[in-house]
Amino acid sequence: MAKVLVVEDDRVFGELLRMHLEDRDHEPHIARTLEQGRSWLTGNAPDAILLDHQLPDGFGLDLLKEIAAQPPFPPIIMITGISDNTLAIDAMRQGAYDFIRKPMDEVELQATLTNALQSHRLSRQVAAITGTEDYQVDLDQIVGSSPRILQICKTIGSVAASNAPVLITGESGTGKEVVARAIHHHSGRSGLFLPINCSALAENLLESELFGHEKGSFTGAVARKEGKFELAHEGTLFLDELGEMPASLQAKLLRVLQEGAFERVGGTQILNSDARIVAATNRDLGRMIEEGGFREDLYYRLDVVPIHLPPLRERMHDLPALTEHLLKKINKRQHTKIRHIADKAWRRLKDYAWPGNIRELENILTRSAVLARSDTITADLLAIPATREDPGAGPGEAESSAKPARLVTLDEIEREHVAVILAHVHWHKGNACEILGISRPALERKIAKYGLA
Ligand SMILES: Nc1ncnc2c1ncn2[C@@H]1O[C@H](COP(=O)(O)OP(=O)(O)OP(=O)(O)O)[C@@H](O)[C@H]1O
Ligand SMILES: [Mg+2]
Q1: What distance in angstroms lies between residue 365's CA and the mean position of ligand 1's atoms?
Q2: pTM of the predicted structure, to 2 decimals
Q3: 282 lines ligand 1 (CB under 6 A)
Q4: Are 428 and 422 in contact (CB under 8 A)?
Q5: What angle do CA 322, 166, 151 make, to 5 degrees?
Q6: 20: part of which helix (H) or strand (E)?
Q7: If you measure from the C-alpha of residue 393 to the centroid of ligand 1, how many angstroms do you get, rounded to a whole number?
Q8: How do 54-55 and 48-51 pair as beta strands?
Q9: From the centroid of its chain, how far is CA 97?
Q10: Counting beta carbons within 10 angstroms of the beta carbon of residue 231, is it exposed (0 to 12), middle (13 to 18) or buried (19 or more)?
Q11: CA-180 nearest atom, ligand 1
Q12: What is the pLDDT of residue 119?
C-alpha cells in the first residue's frame, strides 16, 4: 500500500483518482489547493504525489519546485489539461517524475505510478546504503529470485562440498564466474580460488601457467615456477573459456582428472593435485565435439555437475534486483551517488533484449552513472540501441515525451508484480503482504485470481 497525495481542484477528477488509487490498495489523500497540499505535507511523507498544474491559489509547478528543493523527495507525477510542451519540459527539468496529459489514460497512470513507486523504493534502499561507509558489496552474491536462479542456487548448495567437477555454460556475461566463486565460497575448502583464462594465453604459456615449469625448461624459464594446479591445492581451479583450450592441453587436463597426476613443464617428478575443477564456457561444446574441436572424453569428465545459466532476457524478473545490486556496487566503486532511475530510462532497460547480459547491464549502468550530473539516471544517458517497441528511443531524446512502450492492462501489471514479489520472498506470504502493502486475505484473493502457484 502506498500513500499518495493528490493535489487536484476538480472534484470529479479528484474522485476518479481516489477511486482508481483505492482500487489498487493505495491510500490517497486529496488536497484541493496548493495550501492544503503544503500543510498536509508538513506532517506526512507520501510515497508519490499526483499534481495538477492550474490550481485556485497558484501553479502546481511552484509546489513541485518547493518540494524538489529539499531532496530526497517522493516521485511527483504532473497531471494536467494544458497541452503545452514547454510546461512538460519545465516540469521534468524541475524534477517531476513524469508528466501525464488529461484526458488521462488509466493504464498509463497505473504503469507510471507502478514504475514511480518501484524506483522510489529502489532509490531509498540505494540511498540507505550509499550513506554507510563500511558497507561491503558481496561480490560472491548471486542476485535474483527467478525459478531458474533458485534452482541453480540449490545445485550449488548440494554440490559445493563435494569434489565433483562442475561445468558452467551460458552466454557471455551471464554470471558464470560469479557461480564459480560461489561454489568455492560454499565448499569449505581452505585453499585458494584461482581463475585461469584458457583463451588469454599462448599455448606454451598456458601450459606453464597450469602445470608450472622447471628452471631452464625453456628460454626465459630462469627459475622453477609452480603452476595453478599446485597453487590451488585444497582450493578451486577455475578454467574459464574452456572451449578455447588447445588440444594438447586438453589431453593433459584429462590426465589430471583421471589420475590426479601431472608434471611440471620440463620436469619428471609426478605431482598430485587435489584442486577442485570448475570450468566455464560460452561455446557449444557438443557442437565442438562433433566438429573435432573438443575431446568427448574430457567433456564427460568435466560435465559431472552441469550448470546452465539462462540469458538475462529469460530472467527479466530479476532486472530490478540486479539493477539495485549493480548500482550499489557502482556507487561504491565509482564514488557516484545514483539514487534514481527515471521512468523512461527504466522502461528502456526493461524493453532491451540484453545480448551482452548482466555484464552489459553493468557496463551501461556504470557509464550512465559516471556521466550523470545528478543522482538520477535518465534515458538520454543510456547508451542502448532503440527497440522496435520504442522506435523513438535513442540517446539525446528528452525525458518529457514518455509513453509506455506497450499498453498493458492493470491486471497484467498487478499479476506480474505480485508474482515477482512472491518469488522474491520465497513465497513467505507475510513478507509479501508487507512489501505489497495489502492484507493477507487480499493477497490470497490475488493469488487465486491470477492462478499463481
Ligand atoms: N546473479 C548475479 N548477481 C549479481 N551480479 C551478477 C550476477 N551474475 C553476474 N553478475 C555480474 O555481472 C558481471 C558478469 O558476470 P561474470 O563475469 O560472472 O559473467 P561470465 O558469464 O563469466 O561472462 P563472460 O562469459 O563474458 O566471461 C559481473 O560483474 C558480475 O558481478
Ligand atoms: Mg567469465
Answers
A1: 14
A2: 0.61
A3: yes
A4: no
A5: 45
A6: helix 11-23
A7: 27
A8: unpaired
A9: 22
A10: middle
A11: 18
A12: 67
14, 298, 299, 421 from 235: Cα distances, Å: 65, 21, 22, 37
Q: Which three cell numbers stand for residue 32?
A: 484541493
Rounded CA-CA distance 251/65 in Å is 69
Q: Which of 70-79, 86-95, 104-113, 271-280 has the lowest mean pLDDT?
A: 86-95
Pairing of strands 225-226, 212-213: antiparallel
User: Tell me, what amino acid is at 34?
Assistant: L
Whether ligand 1 lies within 6 angstroms of the CB of 197 is answered as: no
Phi, then psi, of 171 in degrees rounded to 5: -60, 165
Coil, strand or helix: which one is 384?
coil
Where on the phi/psi map is residue 437: left (φ > 0), alpha (ψ -120 to 50), or beta? left
Mean pLDDT of 114-136: 57
One-letter amino acid identity for 210? L
Kindly indicate the confidence band of residue 276, based on its pLDDT and cuts at 50, 70 and 90.
very high
Residue 280 CA: which ligand 1 atom is closest? 22
Write the CB contacts of 344 (distance below 8 Å, at least 6 apart in sequence).
98, 378, 379, 399, 402
CB count within 10 Å of CB 336 equals 20
Convert the pLDDT of each residue in 35-73 to its tens digit. Answer: 999 999 998 989 999 999 999 999 999 999 999 888 778
C-alpha to C-alpha distances, 104 to 4, 67, 108, 407, 427, nearest whole angstrom: 17, 24, 8, 14, 35
Side chain identity, residue 8? E
Q: Is 46 in the pocket of ligand 1 (CB under 6 A)?
A: no
Please indicate whether residue 88 or residue 365 has the higher confidence score (pLDDT): 365
Q: List CB contacts of 400: < 8 A, sequence separation 6 or more.
A: 85, 88, 89, 91, 92, 99
CA of residue 108 relative to chain centroid, distance: 25
State residue 69's pLDDT score. Answer: 85
Q: How far apart are CA 124 and CA 215, in angstroms?
A: 58
| Ligand 1: centre distance to CA 61 (Å) | 43
Question: What grid cell was written down for 353?
Answer: 533484449
Cell 561444446 belongs to 285
Mutate to test the pocket of ligand 1, among 323, 359, 366 (most ligand atoms within 8 A of CB): 359
pLDDT tens for 91-119 read 777 788 888 888 778 888 888 898 788 76
Quick one: pLDDT at residue 124?
A: 61
Work out the pLDDT band at 134, boundaries 50, 70, 90: very low
State which ligand 1 atom lies nearest to the alpha carbon of 177: 18
